Batch of 4 targets.
Target 1
Amino acid sequence: MAANATTLIVAKGSKLTVFSMASDQPDDDTLAAHMLGPTGNLRAPTIRTGDTLLVGFNEDAYAEHL
């Protein structure tokens, strides 16, 4: 899922982490550490809009990309 996106935005609380998948793709362990919650499941909500993948909820990020 993340490999097909050009931008990955991960929200954990109020903290946002942005990955540029096109130019500087992180390794699988880094992606898993950011995209998976404490139970090992994908953080919710997860939404793909265009070439951007939003993981977790951050109101500002959603307002900007949706």
Target 2
Amino acid sequence: MINFIIVDDDRMIIKLIEDFASKVNFLNYKGSYTSVVDALNDNASEDIDLIFLDVELPEMSGIEYLKNFRKKPMIIMISTYPDYAVDAFEYEAVDFLLKPFVFSRFFRSVQKAVKMNKFLEMQFNEEE
């Protein structure tokens, strides 16, 4: 099971991700935030494996938000602007979703996250 949150100031996108995620039995929704400040104040990164993260947010960008993590969860960056894809991969995002996106594209992204999660679990188990 992959625990995830959504950080996006677009409530329609939040609803879309919630709806898509409800169709995927290995995703466990933990909440959504319309600003990075709300996510930080709620300690939203605790026990989170994946964040659907918008790049452009009020008060602090999604990229700036990533700098606050000691142990960074997997990230699927989302934006209306394709130019941010380069930034997303520089910060080791699992994937980049260009708004608006359809279920099949969303599902491909979460499949990448599952593969990454399995790889990370294998690495962790080898270290023990």
Target 3
Amino acid sequence: MKNNYGLNSIVEMKKQHPCGCNKFRITRVGVDIKIECTNCGRTIMLSRVDFNKKIKKVLMEVEND
């Protein structure tokens, strides 16, 4: 599966955040990926490998020029 996510993309994760939302915005892309909950604003830092295992789908893809 080709990952079509980038900075500011909205993604849906397999497990939801304790606040009840499973939609996150990507705020940092590198070796680690930082995501922010769209409901409560808390941030989570994951390794790229863990993130690729836990992502369900990309809801909104953002083009970076």
Target 4
Amino acid sequence: MAQANRVTVAGRLIELDALRHTPAGVPMLKFRLQHDSVQTEAGGERKVSFEIAAVAFEREAKLLAAAKLGSRVKVNGFLAARSRSSRTPLLHATQIEFAEGD
């Protein structure tokens, strides 16, 4: 049975690299999100703030390439190691929705 690995993060685009292509010709774009919210934990409220590195391919990469820094987005995807040598998590965006008005 497959293990669950689904992530949804809403935030603002704070970094957008240039649209590139993999050696196989697949469009890709690296980006960073800033997330700020209030979450409930152990019966109390907790302010949460973090940045996360992410990558998008194909359609999502092309959508982000046309976006402006500061745009509000909701990203659905999964976490994977950044590389074979770095176990730091990287969010792989499989679906991107832009907030209304952005």
